């Protein structure tokens, strides 16, 4: 438990988190631009959640000994991982539901008006794909299913680190 609790205080742990999310973002761009898989709106939201975990890791990396920095990083990490998990679950429902009227897939991302990421960086945040189409599978699991597994892992790691630190009476 001490090992897990100490992870939040080490820059190397936050760096591993940053590198893992960075690699996932690179993989997303590879799928989009090398394999010509058009991301849908749900893919973009999941990509944004991974970006949120990346931002959390950079925040934590900046000064892991500072409790305020850690709390901000924890909040950003947990919200992004859990939100990403639920977005991936909804995406899986869209792909597996046989009723064509059960879900609709927006064309334009619903980002806040003060931060229209799809207009600022359309090459990264535009969503020309169809949410219901399964374009890629690995080991018989679709992309959103793999993302749900990844978000579950990020959530479990966060919960483990957070609870370990709570049990040591430090956050």
UniProtKB/TrEMBL annotation:
Protein name stated in the entry: Disulfide bond formation protein B
Gene3D superfamilies referenced in this protein's UniProt entry, alphabetically: DsbB-like (1.20.1550.10)
UniProt keywords, alphabetically: Cell inner membrane, Cell membrane, Chaperone, Disulfide bond, Electron transport, Membrane, Oxidoreductase, Redox-active center, Transmembrane, Transmembrane helix, Transport
Record keyword Cell inner membrane present: yes
Disulfide feature: 40-43, 105-131
Membrane topology term: Multi-pass membrane protein
Location(s), subcellular: Cell inner membrane; Cell membrane
Origin: domain of life: Bacteria
NCBIfam families linked to this entry: PRK01749.1
GO CC terms in record: plasma membrane
UniProt-recorded Gene Ontology molecular function terms: electron transfer activity; protein-disulfide reductase activity
One Pfam family, short name: DsbB
Gene transcribed to yield this protein: dsbB
Coiled-coil annotated residue ranges, if any: none
Transmembrane segments: 12-32, 44-61, 68-88, 146-166
